[in-house]
Records
---
Amino acid sequence: MLSPAADTRWISLADENALVAAACRRILRAADEAIAARGRFLLVLTGGQTPKAVYRQMAEIDADWAAWHFYFGDERCLPADHPDRNSRLACETWLDRVPVPKQQIHVIPAELGAVQAAARYQASLQDVADFDLVLMGLGEDGHTASLFPGQDWGLSVAAPTTLAVFDSPKPPSERVSLSGARLGRSREMLFMVTGQGKRDAVARWRAGEPLPAAAIRPPSGVDVLITPPLAETASI
Ligand code: 6PG
């Protein structure tokens, strides 16, 4: 069992609209701090459907987009224009709608297959410093990114930056993921969790079960935005 990490902060919002607003505030605050301190903002996007409303809202905001650099926590091994690609969701809802320099959007070339894409993505990250903010989702089995229970989460210090995943229980089976170690190299980490389907995963996380989402421990801890009724499950 993992000790319930004191550095996991559960933040309950009134509803999904409030969660979207809170997530956007957090992203913009992290961006302001990073750009003021280092002249650029290194943000890792999560896949899945939960962040869709956040990405749409972010596209409406006037930010210093020339200083933003986008990465992906994971990608599905599908054609680049496939509707289920995480990169397609992010581009359609946000990145194609703001003036971010295209070379600052670091899409995982997952259409090449997991091994080649993981190698290319790893090479592209070789000289990239710690991320400023990593956005994360939570699967119903406690997975995050493409790190699934019973598989290698890449948490050791010797772990590679990227993992080729071949037996994902969430389709498609073939994916590329940042390793848990590389995801954890971030100043901040923000989970966005909504929906009844996540109740069991939240309860198990709170109970200290060794789930992928619970195992990634960036130095400054993790913030988890949730909405009722998950808040009751998380007893917060
Ligand atoms: C993916 C995601 C995955 C996702 C969770 C939650 O590629 O599927 O990276 O980790 O964040 O499965 O997905 P939902 O937000 O759709 O519930």
Note: The helical segments are 16-38, 52-58, 86-93, 114-124, 180-183, 199-206, 212-215, 230-233.
---
Amino acid sequence: MNERYSVARGMRDMLAVDATRMSFVEQAFITTLRQYGYEEIRLPLLEKTELFQRGVGEATDVVSKEMYIMEDRGGDSLALRPEGTASCVRAAINNSMLRGNNPRLWYVGPMYRYERPQKGRYREFTQVGAEAFGYTGPDVDTELIEVGTVVWEQLGIAEHVTLELNTLGSPASRMRFREALIDYLTPQREFLDPDSLNRLSTNPLRILDSKNERTQQIVSQGPNISDYLDSESVEFFVDLQSQLDARGIAYQCNDRLVRGLDYYTHTVFEWNTDKLGAQKQLGGGGRYDGLFEILGGEPTHAAGFAVGVDRIALLHENCEASVESDAADIYVVTPIGVFDTRLDAIMKGLRARTTLRVKRHMGGGRLKVQLRQADRSGARWALIAGDQELQKNVVGVKWLREARDQVDVSIDALAEFFEQQHD
Ligand code: HAM
């Protein structure tokens, strides 16, 4: 026998209900985003490595430690996308999408980060993202947050999701805060954990969300971003909060929230849950007014978010929220010798006139064997159309999950019959 292969570390096969749950979560976001007028954009899985180095930031963990980078046969350095925002901005610039139009876009698909895998953290995971270009805000920031809130409700998990909010202010105020933080932390550098010490020279803001207790203690006595905001940044943040209040959207302000990607200005937010252990973050986003320029475009206001579908699916499962399975509703048993086009017409009619899933038995076999397969398929009914039945212009309907007697139903009334039965 040849060698069997296991799946690569951090990658997953998702089977049956796990796959269905992923689609269900994706669809909840996609449907809601469409209802808000967001339009789909499909972006490549591979981008030039430099796009993320410039866009997301060299000093971020995502770029410095987690990217899958390859050289293609032509010698170009390409990266599997670790996130969608930089690609989305690149696409908007390349396709002149802002000419006379302010696009609001959504995307869904796999992202890749070489992280240490554990429950809720994978090397290939799925995001749904939304990005709005050309809006000064904070109306659009509020709308983006509202979309999330609507979907948590729809999925029945709202009570387990909290929203954290902060502002990083304008680039100038952020820079002043950064300097103050460096000035404060440098004399205490020997007390910082190794990761934070590293970040002091590369990405000092990230020290704020260090999990190390001692570092946290030091940081808690240090400068606070709110003291470094210019009046325009304060006004923006106050305005955002009053718009959220007006919509009844609950949030907690957290002045330590900085996010892991470098492009943010003003608004930053994260949706968290306490039901998934260490992998708390279900999604996050914010405003990134400087990214278009960094990537060679015209200065453009922008804001967006992305959610982690894998984690939301886990939470949904933990809450024991049900999803409709992909199993067929009706399993059509096909006795040998039956004039097949009649049976085909019956199935075609059912598929066209109802929303039921109609699965046809394949490969022949005795009635008993076919019925066993019908049972295993998870279908609710077996439809039996032998010569005898068809001659009488009926089919037999057998309940597979309920103790009820088989009945004959007229072929003409079959769609109505199933529609009445289906709740
Ligand atoms: P992010 O916070 O890096 O933001 O990722 C968004 C979400 O993706 C996270 O909250 C998490 O749920 C999920 N996620 C991240 N890494 C993993 C992983 N290894 N395994 C499973 N799930 C994961 C962004 O990516 C930004 N592009 C969001 C954004 C859009 N900001 C503005 N526009």
Note: The first helix runs from residue 16 to 35.
---
Amino acid sequence: MTLKISISGIRGIVGESFTEEIALEISKAFGTFLNNGKVAVAGDTRPSSKLFKHLILSGLASTGCLPVDLGICPTPTVGIAVKELGCSGGIVITASHNPVEWNGLKFFRGDGTFIKEDELNKLINIWKTKKFKETAETKSIEKGEALTIHIEKILKVLDVKSIKERQFKVALDSCNGAGGKITQMFLKELGCKVLAINVEENEPFPHPPEPIPQNIKDLTELVKREKADIGFAQDPDADRLSIVSEKGEAAGEEYTLALSADYILSKPLNQKTIVTNLSTSMIIDDIAGNHNARLIRTKIGEINVAQEILKSAAAIGGEGNGGVIYPEVSLSRDSITAIGLILEYLAKSKKKTSVLIDSLPKYYMYKEKININSAEEAEEALNKIKEKYISEKMDLTDGVKIIFKDSWIHVRPSNTEPILRVITEAKSKEEAKLLCNLILEVLNQVP
Ligand code: MG
């Protein structure tokens, strides 16, 4: 497995594709790219993150930058800290929802958004050509605290009083990741009774880290047993969130953005625009329709959504994988902000979590991967699909998306792996699977 390089950052298996040497060199490349200033550095709770952090702090210092060590922080916290502390950039050491053997780096620009594609290419070019800036001057490493900055920022945009009045009982599973500490602090600020599991920073991940229904059974049990109002599950760098209803039912990640958007778009706004990527559920189309809002779909990749939110001055945006971007707080996916919005929705609507979830339409997704050997092969496959569906409504922004009345098919080359991703969505499981099989047939793959 080679090092994965994409606009989501770099990611690899520790000691194999992602080594100490690579971490050191890339931090020097990032310092060279930024060319000065303070650089925020934080990691998730993986044991390897600590080791990499020392290398990255010294790599940055060797280029004349001033590293600011923020300790263990969620990815969105670093984005906010970069901006608030006047840094010229930031690095988060995390492999997000990948298993513990993995680690990687995400890069923030000075404005608190992720670096763009052309900037990433520039960074990788500096790394590959090893043209690192060097300085003889030794800069010390600053220590910083960013959790309270992040919490304050969210509290400012919430109706804290309404939430506090409800004294919600909230169950939390942070997968022993970077979200545990800050989320407990945040929930206490909102007057919640917190029932937390898997919030130990020094313990291993207790289950596969993606917050999808099959991985969060302990949380669903906890919600039921303790009669909590809601349950929240985060991935290890706390940019993704999923919800469990008071009945102990996992809603699935698509409902996190859906509920947050349903709430924000119900407010009186000047600009009712929502942004999401092409692979996010049609629930968002229905919500946008209900609120007379404009929906803009982008290429896959968080930065693409964030840039469009900025450009269109959207009220909210994000991804169907549980990534909510609320621009009043920041331009990156943020599970802690999403928790605040959903609790405010519960407080204001005076409805139960399951009622809010059930009020949204239900769709079913089906996903497949097809191995490909080259970019040409991917192109050829996409052309075959385009030909087959020539008379249908199509979006060619990112691969091929064929849009039917209440279903769709999206086929695109992965940003990180030599595969084509096939995602379909329809009103029933059977139909979603059938749509996927049609694509496999077109590409001569056995379903
Ligand atoms: Mg993540």
Note: The mean pLDDT is 96.
